[in-house]
Amino acid sequence: MNGKWEVVIGLEVHTQLATNSKIFSGASTAYGAAPNTQACLVDLGYPGVLPVLNAEVVRMAVKFGLAVNAKVASRSIFARKNYFYPDLPKGYQISQYELPIVGHGELFILDDNGNEKRIGITRAHLEEDAGKSVHEGFGEHSGIDLNRAGTPLLEIVSEPDMRSAREAVAYMRKIHTIVRYLEVSDGNMQEGSFRCDANVSVRPRGQKELGTRAELKNLNSFRFVEKAINFEIDRQIALIEDGGEVVQETRLYDSDKDETRPMRSKEEANDYRYFPDPDLLPVEIDDSFIEAVRKTLPELPDAKQQRFTNQYGLKTADAEILTASRAVSDYFEQVAEATTAGPQVAANWVIGDLSALLNKEGIEIKSSKIGAGALAGLLDRIADTTISGKIAKDVFESMWTGEGSADEIIAAKGLTQITDTSALESVVDAVIAANPEQVAEFRAGKGKLLGFFVGQVMKETGGKANPGQVNRIIKQKLG
Amino acid sequence: MTADPAGLALHQRTLSELAWGLTKGDFTSRELTELLLGRVAQHESLNAFITVTADVALEQADRADRARTRGVAGPLNGLPIVHKDLFCTKGVLTTCGSNILSHFVSPYDATVVERMAEAGAVMLGKTNMDEFAMGSSNETSFYGPVMNPWDTKLSPGGSSGGSAAAVAARLVPAATGTDTGGSIRQPAALTGTVGLKPTYGRVSRYGMVAFASSLDQAGVITRSAEDAALLLRVIAGIDRRDSTSVDHPVPDYVAGISKPVKGLRIGVVRQHFDEGLDPLCAERVKTSLDALNEAGASLIEIDLPSIGLSVPTYYVVAPAECSSNLSRFDGVRFGHRSADPEDLLDLYCRSRGEGFGAEVKRRIMTGTYVLSAGYYDAYYLKAQKVRQLISQDFKNAFERVDVIAGPTAPTTAFAIGEKTDDPITMYLNDIYTIGANLAGLPGISVPCGFATGLPVGLQLVGPHFAEERILACAHQYQQLTDWHKMAPEDFA
């Protein structure tokens, strides 16, 4: 990046809380229902209806607060944010303004140089989501779907502590990992359960005061966050270097064109006329509640990653990948505890073959067609040399298609590795006899041909020969 | 407790008297309902009703009669009531006196409506009111003003003017109302009826269309304190659908009213008898206080130093909340939608412009202003601080007295049209009632005599959840006097 300029980024992450019902009504939050079938009178903002706070939402927010080492407010207040929009049924959004439920907190990411870096969290507050305007399929009209109206959101606001798009993505990923660990959000970005706004500004390196910022709205994938921020950085720097000035405004990222464009300026910004919502009581949280929630905190990703490197001796990179998701780390630990093959082998398989198949078929690890116990059974057969690593990959695929356990498949297909030296010697002899030219070349010094002979033996044995043994025998016989 | 008022025409009887007659089998609920529906039709010109629900009423009356035969009668079984048109009633027009809801049929019942229906009450209709309860004369209604039965050139007060007029005219023995700044007590005073505003949180606000959420409270208008007690017992109590309703035990208010006033310490607010109070009204109120004094209560002069700020405080807080509460009436999902809007902004502007009347618009604009960036601290926040002071004044006073008594309204009923051009004078009509709303206290207005032939109301205000105490005091006063038994000449 341009060395003259320093980039300053703060993120507002909106994460949908994984409650069954909405934040202020009993309507379901399930995704994908027919339009307006999951909106009750409260969500529709009917005359006379009143909001009632879903207690689960408070528990989840507190859980998040504790996970990022934040101060949980003993008293927080819901406020009304007033503006008119057709997908905002009451003409105001119930949010938190002056007294949010979660105060200052922090988390750690790796910066561009691979060093640990603290990112401050300013606050996290609860609010209700709006509905959705549908602009296609209604001619000159717009459709309104209020299924999403009243869905609980936790808006997590960071300090302007990030200095590159990459750091912003690392921070967002960390939040994503934490909320899923805590099981307070499914973090599903396609369904809009996890999205963010980015405040981006640039300033001459060394300057203390912040540059004028632009707010990029509604970034709903890690890739878009990175691209949108990078576009915006380039735009701002080019603008300033051309003698222009950045104006404070809200910009929308267009992923098709990979650009940001103005949505509304500071002057056009709404005056939201926030005031405490008189329909809701202040949320009062005592220490005993906080302690009860603290007891439900799972081991968090940073601690788990540390433990994986210490306890299992995993490479840091592998530990990081495995702990990015609680389900993956749980799966890995089950395999590692059950198999005799050792934790690194377990890690390699979970990160490698298993992840590849899961990704290919778009399946969550929780629904993996091969359970942790079954995978451990397969790895055991490698460890005790019943099969080779190569055969294991075939067995793995058969297990995936439901042909049975590793042992059943090995038995049914007769895949047990040939380790009988005399049996292997006779195959090697046959291969040597059948390939006199290659034998001559090998003996003349073309050592690369070893692989050819091993391949021939494997072919003859249907891949069942123990490759190490075969290597040794060929070297003996031709050496 | 209630003597059999044999010979008294059915429409003259109180709820308690009617309940006795129904229990004895002197008449059926259907007979009673038909008779009162007849009176409602006969006195249509009072304009007390926006909707008469004769079909619903007769069906409920028949059901009540059958229930009585089966021996499963609820506490209000077969008793006729009407609801202020601010309460949502399932399948029935619910207009709030506004054009914007002039075609709105509610898909659900308010908690108050539901509880009364479950207790066996018979709903005769929905009463006229100031638009969205914003007014003190019932003149801001889209459906036109209500006439005061004592003199049809006069206003019955407001905003629950239709409910008060219907009860005063003996069209129905009891009605619901809502009180944000005096909207139950002031019309009760101006029509010679009893108006009870309970403690904030005592009665659920669910299904009561919001005007100013932190001040609104549902209550009743009746002809006796005993009837108010009977109804309050049914509608009071926590409702999980209203977070601001309070989980406080509901006593047997009817049993509680027999408590004598002997030993009761009645606070008389010095500021309440300052200039602004009509001298004849002042005299009536003082006479009624003397009567309570003679009955054994002591009168103690008290100060509410900040009470003079209650009207300006109210006219910041209430419009602020109303400006937000009324945002939902945008022409998108329900209510009036302007024809052929050019675009979204046009849809909003015209739907609301056509739908709301002048007073509602005035308050929405005031409220929007006081919440705006740069004005919030100077108006809204300051008003909230003054509100705290006013609450503290009452709290201090209730350390010395059990009940605070004084006038309900500064004058008797005024002429329709008299104050419509001067909103400030209109606002001052609630000068004695607003304090109880700001502090969330229960208050009741009881008829305490006449000035130049028009009813005067005595207001009793108690500490939080002391409804039993103010009802008992009001009831004991009614045992000493007959003011509440006097009917307007043309409606006797």
3D architecture notes:
The complex is a heterodimer of chains A (479) and B (492). Chain A has 479 residues and is α+β, with helices and mostly antiparallel strands. Chain A has helices at residues 55-67, 165-181, 222-241, 287-294, 301-312, 316-323, 326-338, 343-361, 372-383, 389-400, 406-413, 421-434, 436-443, 450-460, 467-478; strands at 5-16, 75-76, 78-82, 92-96, 105-110, 116-128, 132-134, 143-145, 152-158, 194-204, 214-219, 249-254, 259-265, 275-276, 283-284. In chain A, the strands form four sheets. In chain A, strands 5-6-9-1-10-11-12-13 form an eight-stranded mixed beta sheet. In chain A, strands 4-3-14 form a three-stranded antiparallel beta sheet, with no helix packed on it. Chain A starts with a strand and ends with a helix. The model of chain A has no long low-confidence stretch (mean pLDDT 93). Chain B has 492 residues and is of the alpha/beta class. Chain B has a single domain (10-304, 395-491), classed as Amidase signature (AS) domain (Amidase signature (AS) enzymes, Alpha-Beta Complex). In chain B, 37% of the residues lie in helices and 13% in strands. In chain B, the strands form two sheets. An eight-stranded mixed beta sheet of chain B has the order 4-6-5-10-11-9-7-8, sandwiched between helices. Chain B has a three-stranded mixed beta sheet with strand order 1-3-2. In chain B, helix 2 (29-42) packs antiparallel against helix 3, helix 10 packs across helix 12 and helix 10 crosses helix 13 (377-397). The two termini of chain B are 24 Å apart.
